[in-house]
Amino acid sequence: MSRIEKKLLGQSLVSDGLVTQEQLNTALTEQKRTSDTLGYTLINLKYLNEQQLLDFLVTKLNFSYANLRNYVIDPKVVKLIPENIARKYHCIAILRVKGAVTVAMLDPLDSFLLDNLEYTTACKIKPLVSTLAEIQTALAEFYREDATTHVPGATGSTQPTTSGAAPNSSIEEFAKRIQGHGEKRSGDSVIDLSQINVTDKQSIIQLVNLIIMRAIKEKASDIHIEPDENVLRTRFRIDGMLQEVMSLPKTFEAASISRCKVMAELDIAEKRIPQDGRIKLQLQDREIDLRVSTYPTLRGEKVVMRILDKSTVLFGLEDLGFPDDTLTTFSALITKPNGIILVTGPTGSGKTSTLYAALQCIKDPSINIVTIEDPVEYQLSNINQGQINPKAGFTFAGGLRSILRQDPDVIMVGEIRDYDTAEIAIRAALTGHLVFSTLHTNDSAGAMTRLIDMSVEPFLVASSIIGVMAQRLIRTICEECKEEYQPPPAVIKRSKLLYQAGKTKVFQGKGCLKCNQTGYRGRTTITELLVPNERIKELIVEKSATSVIKNEAMKQGMRTLRQDGLAKVLRGLTTLSEVIRVSADDEI
User: CATH topology for 317-475+523-558?
Assistant: First the structure.
């Protein structure tokens, strides 16, 4: 069960007075040891009885109750769930309609179990709640009785035997189970996740694969597997924010980290220095790349995996959330015959998506588009994409020189990192090519001074740059739990845009299951587009400060990142706190 769902069930039970906070804490600790569901653990500890849990799930959380005595169940449907899983986690498949399987279970909030069942049955799972006695009676009818059933409170009862190791198995026992599964793969080989049995939570191989699959399912951009003092913590970055999804016993650390390193073809014996690698996955008809990075910390090696889902549908410019006037201006810029267009922002601000959308918009059989990237994140049809290889001497600067001999019309450089790359890109723009690239600067005006800081001549910067788009990704309010609220008057007065609009109420997300109780679901962009006019070009040549260039651009009508964010607040798309979080500390 995820952290959010544990909080939903556990804290809701505390709020209703069914269990105390101390009892909940004890149950959560016991659950980590046994790997049982939270509901089952609470019953087994006699903190509440089965009927109380059933009534709570039905009346408070609106789950439907399945009286199994009234169902005529097809044995073939029951066998969709392996017997050991059905017995251990108290669930039974009772109905299959097209691509959906209805499952009666004791704890319908256990997302780990739901994920397992979904991948095991290859169907969508519709959970219903039922009693433990009814489930065990049905299981006894449809499965052979070769395992002892467990009834909470019964003396001498034991957990059903499963094919998996016990939750507190030693690392040595796990190591025996994963021997023979960590062979080195060739660089082009593919791991097919859809063919892996994910029903045994105690298998390290299956556990790591399940973590990856769950991250993909939840549209996470990064997976963090990090050792803490007493646990191995797993977090996903979803919509730009890290969310804890799992805490495993510390004994899982060595085998889990080693498994990640084996998949990425890294040296599992080397734990003193950082390492980088890649994993190529095939999940049904989806091709997914993972960029893997390890980093030695005081408590052990940390692993971060960046997820690149090649099946992700690329957005068009009109889908990126640009204001109408920004979209019109930017669309005009990308059709110019020459010049440099820069997209700036921190890592994870959507720069690559914007560049890809621009290239998709202008590609045509009559022009030659060539890119040099690190890495190629998505493959684009009818565009010649290249990827740097520093070990082989293929750098941005060297690759850009080669591109100029490829008769290009449009060039995309993944990032301008040094003087050589900047100088060649500018020369290309001044000799009749349209060049796209990115920089890591906080705002659009900062791109000019950054290039000058790289020792590029100011007059070359002023002559070549035709537009700079600074952007951020900002979370949007969940439509399922959206509600109106009134910010403090001081905040309204500080926000000129809200104050001038006479707005005293805006929107926020209350938090629900759809958004994992965050109040946000999905992201859009806020942008700041600077198109240099003659006065701004003069300021660049004079090496004026970033603030001076920005103020002049604002006089000419440029909308800042924060102003664009506040406009989206007025439209009910995002919140004031989110705009303040991602935009600069200028006046709001």
Answer: Rossmann fold (3.40.50)
9-142: what fold? GMP Synthetase; Chain A, domain 3 (3.30.300)
Distance CA 217, CA 116 (A): 12
Domain locations along the chain: 9-142, 197-309, 317-475+523-558
Residues 6+ apart with CB under 8 A from 509: 477, 478, 481, 482, 483, 515, 518, 519, 520, 521, 575
Residue 62's pLDDT band (cuts 50, 70, 90): confident
- The bridge status of strand 275-283 relative to strand 191-192 is parallel
Exposed / middle / buried, residue 383 (Cβ in 10 Å: 0-12, 13-18, 19+):
middle
Q: Give the range with max mean pLDDT: 100-104, 125-129, 361-365, 575-579.
A: 361-365
Q: Measured at the alpha carbon of residue 51, what is the angle toward residues 48 and 55, in degrees to the nearest 5?
A: 105
Same-fold call for 197-309 versus 317-475+523-558: no
219-245 residue pLDDT tens: 899 999 999 988 899 999 999 999 888
As given in the structure block, the two tokens for residue 435 are: 């060049």
| Confidence check: pLDDT of 424 > 80 | yes
Q: Tell me what percent of the residues of the chain surpass a pLDDT of 70.
A: 84
So what's the architecture of 197-309 in CATH?
Answer: 2-Layer Sandwich (3.30)
Q: Nearest Cα to 147, choosing from 214, 199, 82?
A: 82
pLDDT of 14:
85
